[in-house]
Every structure is written in C-alpha cells, then in structure tokens.
Design brief:
It is a single chain. It contains six helices and two strands; from the N terminus they run ααααββαα. By secondary structure, the protein is mainly alpha-helical. The chain has one domain: Winged helix-like DNA-binding domain superfamily/Winged helix DNA-binding domain (Arc Repressor Mutant, subunit A), CATH 1.10.10.10. Strand 1 and strand 2 form a beta hairpin. The radius of gyration is 15 Å and the shape is elongated. The mean pLDDT is 89.
Length: 114
C-alpha cells in the first residue's frame, strides 16, 4: 500500500511540476474533453465523490480552465466545458511523455491513447 501511494504521489508531483495541475484536476480535464457535461457525469467518469468533484471543479473554474453554463432545455441543470486555457492544458498533458512509475506500469499496459 505504501509503495502504491508513493508511486501515485511521484506521478502527481511530475504532473504538478510540468503542467501545474493535480492528478484530480487532470482527470477532470480529461473527463470533460470537448464535451459539455454535468458535474455528476464528471464524478462518475473520474470516480471522485460528488463533493470532491465539486471542489476540484471549483478550483479549475477559479483558475479559468472551465466554465459553467445553464442548460438550454432545463435551466436547473448546470453544464461544464473547457475554456481555451483548459483545452490548451489538456492538449499539453496528452502530448507529454510521462515516465510511469514501475509499480503503476501494469495499470497502463494495454492502454492506448485515442
């Protein structure tokens, strides 16, 4: 368990140093992509609890990475999408060659980027 946490921490530190986002923030950016979706879908895609997803979304919104929009058909529903800044960060993350810690390599085996 300890080794897994150290490996994830190292991975997140590299992400922070290179792109200025945490692992959870990067997951939210990836979950959004080019779509306009709700916070509940983001929580589902990332595996974050709704309350935690909300905090991460708020942080990204404050930094100008995403925006909230009212639903066109249902004004009670809030949709999220990436700004140009958020899209740029996501593209940099996608292009960056991460060195995956040895302990995490089995998780990435067979994963193909779209």
């Amino acid at each position: 368990m300890r080794e897994l946490m150290i490996a994830l921490s190292d991975f997140e530190n590299k992400l922070m140093d290179t792109h200025g986002v945490s692992l959870n923030e990067a997951m939210v950016l990836c979950a959004l992509g080019d779509e306009c979706i709700t916070a509940s879908i983001i929580a589902e895609r990332t595996g974050l609890r709704p309350s935690h997803a909300s905090k991460v979304i708020g942080t990204l919104e404050a930094r100008g990475y995403l925006i909230r929009e009212l639903g066109k058909q249902d004004k009670r529903q809030m949709y999220l999408s990436l700004t140009d800044v958020g899209k740029g960060c996501l593209e940099q993350i996608k292009r960056y060659e991460f060195e995956v810690p040895a302990l995490l390599k089995p998780v990435f085996d067979g994963y193909v980027t779209p």
